[in-house]
Design brief:
Layout: E1 2-3, H1 4-7, E2 14-17, E3 23-24, E4 26-28, E5 38-41, H2 54-59, E6 64-67, E7 78-81, H3 85-96, E8 105-110, H4 115-128, E9 133-136, E10 140-143, E11 146-149, H5 157-169, E12 174-178, H6 181-185, E13 196-199, H7 213-226, E14 237-241, H8 247-253, E15 258-262, E16 269-276, E17 281-287, E18 290-296, H9 301-316, H10 321-330, E19 339-340, E20 348-352, H11 357-370, E21 375-379, H12 389-400, E22 403-406, H13 416-430, E23 435-437, H14 441-451, E24 457-461, E25 468-471, E26 474-477, H15 480-490
Parallel strand pairs: 4-5, 5-6, 6-7, 8-12, 8-13, 9-12, 13-14, 14-15, 15-16, 20-24, 21-22, 21-24, 22-23
Antiparallel strand pairs: 1-3, 2-7, 9-10, 10-11, 16-17, 17-18, 19-20, 25-26
This protein binds ligand UAG, adenosine-5'-triphosphate (ATP), 2,6-diaminopimelic acid and magnesium ion.
Residues 29-32, 43, 45-48, 50, 53, 152-154, 156, 180-183, 186, 209 line the site of ligand UAG.
């Protein structure tokens, strides 16, 4: 239980009614989660106006409200008027949980692609060094060895502060988190004090949400600009991919020291002699403090970038080279990222989360480098998401594959056929023959596997670790890896890779 008075010092507000001496037993932004004695923060959302649910919140026992517009409130309920409820939610939540990010080392990883992979690699390095680590991201949230389900890549501010507080309570030394552009734009992390910001790359995605690429970049930039302020004493820094054209902007807006990584000479941490194989990638790390070889069980040229970012963090944290090497070489895979489905068949089947034009291009280029036979790609695009990326993904898929099967990803509220029709113009820029449309994802995967011959590679892209498919408002069980395995077993391949 906390007194409102103690929660509002970072907030500018107008007290519309009631007293700040009111105690609250919890905070929520969703009326359905409100319990007796709670504070309800009404957010004007993209879909509905949270202020509509004030009666619901009051009925469930809310004793205080935060609103963006004056509302009629029963006596005895405290009501604060703020300019921006999302920001207020963040400030109140951070105060409620006693600013947990100040009590641990917080590493934020942002960028279009590679966040999940990079956070897992950083986690492995810190654990190898004996630290207790918390992880927040797309696949899972973890506190030490305990796994908690992840709903968002970056949780809503209240949930985020609660998770960080839990980590502080469990004596976590480092929290490594993916920071999505949605979270940055919607101020979910504005009251987190980061020690380290890591930038992976920027390419087209989410233009349904951000107005244009400039706005998307500006959202990413917030993390790096924030590194310059806060109350923590330790030396903060940014780790930036110097090979990405946007690195100049990010360097310019951050006031903390920058460590760069990349494949080119000018980077602080570089990779040389890259050798990409189906089951892993080898290369030489070159850094100001020396060189060492890495032999990773993850593959793809993009893995080199993700690993270099993690190496740069490890080195800055003073972790010895041998420990960094041992940690990275011990990572056997990240779920749904270039995950091989191997039932003993004579062609490769790969499940990967590539869901952007750039992600897909990197994936297929890597696939090409390691495949003697044909590349058969099964992919679709998510509904209710950036429409602009659809033809671009179609073009990339057709250009870098020998054959494409265009199917459904998560259609959400859209018609699957209509999404596919947005993809096809891109495909047809490259080929009018070497593709097929199979709307049903299961059948699409079945067809790809049926077509595959010795030395071919079937790439099933877009859903990676996801264990569901969202069709209209139904979340149906669907796991590309399980489906592929089931189909392969139907063909009599049965060696157990699980
Ligand atoms: C675009 C976006 O991010 N939207 C988020 C936003 O939703 P919204 O503004 O549409 O909310 P709304 O549905 O209009 O509701 C408004 C308010 O009324 C409340 N409400 C609603 C119903 C009710 O009965 N009572 C009630 O109080 C809601 O809880 C909410 O506070 O605020 C909600 C509450 O925090 C989020 O759940 C929601 O995430 C949606 C579901 C989402 O899909 N977000 C995705 C795009 C996202 O954030 N993705 C990124 C990763 C992207 C990447 O890959 O990089 C992520 O970090 O996960
Ligand atoms: N550094 C990278 N550059 C480009 N593509 C990458 C990179 N790392 C991974 N990818 C590709 O992008 C896909 C998604 O990778 P990952 O899940 O690590 O990214 P993410 O940034 O967490 O994605 P999301 O925003 O959806 O959570 C991978 O499956 C791979 O195909
Ligand atoms: N976090 C990303 C993931 C997309 C994955 C793809 N399977 C889809 O559903 O579009 C997003 O929300 O845009
Ligand atoms: Mg992710």
């Amino acid at each position: 239980m906390k007194e409102l008075q103690k929660l509002v010092h970072k907030l500018s507000f107008q007290l519309l009614q009631g007293s700040l001496n009111q105690y609250v037993k919890g905070i929520h932004y969703d009326s359905r989660q409100i319990k007796e004695g709670y504070l309800f923060v009404a957010i004007e959302g993209f879909r509905v106006d949270g202020h509509r649910f004030i009666p619901d919140a009051l009925e469930r026992g809310a004793v205080a409200l935060v609103v963006e517009k004056p509302v009629a409130v029963p006596e005895g309920v405290t009501c604060l008027l703020v300019k921006d409820s999302r920001r207020a939610l963040s400030a109140l939540s951070a105060a409620y949980f006693d600013y947990p990010s100040r009590h641990l080392n917080l590493i934020g990883v942002t960028g279009t692609n590679g966040k999940t992979t990079t956070t897992h690699l950083i986690e492995a390095i810190l654990q190898q060094a004996g630290e207790k680590v918390g992880l927040l991201g797309t696949i899972v949230n973890r506190i030490g060895d305990r796994e908690l389900p992840a709903v968002h890549t970056t949780p809503e501010s209240l949930d985020l502060q609660a998770l960080l507080a839990q980590m502080v309570e469990e004596e976590v030394a480092y929290a490594v988190m993916e920071v999505s552009s949605h979270a940055l734009a919607l101020d979910r992390t504005v009251d987190c004090e980061y020690d380290v910001g890591v930038f992976t790359n920027l390419s087209q995605d989410h233009l349904d949400f951000h107005q244009n690429m400039q706005e998307y970049l500006k959202a990413k930039g917030k993390l790096f600009a924030s590194l310059g302020s806060g109350v923590k004493k330790r030396k903060k820094y940014a780790v930036i991919n110097a090979d990405d054209p946007q690195s100049a902007y990010l360097r310019q807006i951050t006031s903390v020291p920058v460590v760069t990584y990349g494949l080119r000479e000018e980077s602080d941490v570089q990779a040389k002699n890259i050798d990409v194989g189906t089951k892993g990638v080898r290369f030489q790390v070159v850094s100001p403090s020396g060189e060492f070889p890495l032999n990773l069980k993850l593959t793809g040229k993009f893995t080199v970038y993700n690993a270099l970012a993690a190496v740069a963090v490890g080195m800055q944290e003073g972790i010895p080279e041998e420990e960094i090497k041992q940690a990275l070489e011990g990572v056997t895979g990240v779920a749904g990222r270039f995950e091989l489905v191997d039932c003993g068949q004579e062609f490769a089947v790969v499940v990967d989360y590539a869901h952007t034009p750039d992600g897909l291009k990197n994936l297929l280029e890597t696939a090409r480098e390691m495949t003697k036979g044909r590349i058969i790609t099964v992919f679709g695009c998510g509904g209710d998401r950036d429409r602009g990326k659809r033809p671009l993904m179609g073009e990339v898929a057709a250009r870098y594959s020998d054959f494409c099967i265009v199917t459904s990803d998560n259609p959400r509220s859209e018609e699957p056929e209509a999404i596919i029709q947005d993809i096809i113009p891109g495909v047809e820029k490259i080929t009018r023959e070497n593709y097929k449309i199979i709307v049903d994802r299961y059948q699409a995967i079945r067809e790809a596997i049926a077509m595959a011959r010795r030395d071919d590679m079937v790439i099933i892209a877009g859903k990676g670790h996801e264990t569901y498919q969202i069709i209209q408002d139904k979340i149906l069980p669907f796991d590309d890896r399980k489906v592929a395995r089931e189909i392969l077993r139907g063909y009599g391949y049965d060696s157990d890779d699980v």
